[in-house]
Amino acid sequence: MAQPVLYLAPHPHNFQNAKVLIALEYGRSELGAVEIRGPAAGDTLSQLATSRLPALETDSRLCLQGARAVAHYLAPGRMRGSSTKDSASIQQWVNLADSEIVQPACTWAFPELGLMKHNSKAAERAQLDLKRILRLLDAHLRLRTYLVGEGVTLADIAVSCSLLLPYKHV
To answer: Which PANTHER family does the entry link to (predicted)?
Structure first.
């Protein structure tokens, strides 16, 4: 394989793809060319469930699965943290996005996209959970431009992409 291959999830509203594509855009100068495609029969990664996508296969046969790992690999070093403290803070925000934003964001937005049956109680709970997270973000960003440090990091990408569905569809 001449260049890395990035396999994206097939659904057009997949926010996990967005995380990876943004990291790729920032890291492209360090990485060089990357082929982007969906999974297809015969590909090394074709047996992966779509829940494991996006995935990346490099020319050295490294195979990474999942948005967090792929985005981490594709992003330039400065976006992963310039110190141990910054790196840990970035991971804290990425974890918050994955553990506390994604589920309520999907619960609220998926019915609007026809991906899930509407459940009023679940939607109400999701809205409350997201409002709590947005208050936390608002308080943290009141005197800052970025979640960690003085530039865009994987923390900003993870949190903003996790909020894409409710911002775009509800």
So the answer is: ELONGATION FACTOR 1-GAMMA (PTHR43986)
